[in-house]
Amino acid sequence: MNPFPYPNDPADPASPAHYPDAATLAEQLMRADFARMHQLRAAAPHAETLEAAEQLLDQAAEIRRAWLLTDGQPFSDFQYLIDAVAAWTRNPAAMRRHLTADNDPAILLPIHRRSHHQAAELTGHTDITPADQPAAAAPTFTAHTHGGQQ
What we know:
Radius of gyration: 15 Å
Number of helices: 5
Structural class: mainly alpha
Order of helices and strands: HHHHH
Number of strands: 0
Shape: globular
Strand content: under 5%
Helix content: 40-55%
Mean pLDDT: 81
């Protein structure tokens, strides 16, 4: 059972329902967990007290720990999201060009394309739309545990 409660609002990036294009339920959960971690980290500097900020950061760290593999390394798709958010924060123009130019799935895997869309959304670059990605077949959903490969 997942230790993190999920909102049931498809408009909330911390809800698995926000990611209907995910290939698996595990991917939906990863994306929702990542968004919640991102929200907690963003809220921490604005907390009313140092103790409240530390609690937010502790919650974010708990989510990240849930996506670590047994060897202590982050699950690769979760790490890809971390890197994508950092890249969209540093240079959104280059990332926008990268996303719109690399329509070949051999260059940018569909799960990575979805990660770039999520990273763009989380960093406030909402002008990137699903129209910027090639058409994909309807996803099929299968249940996996955290850390499972897609």
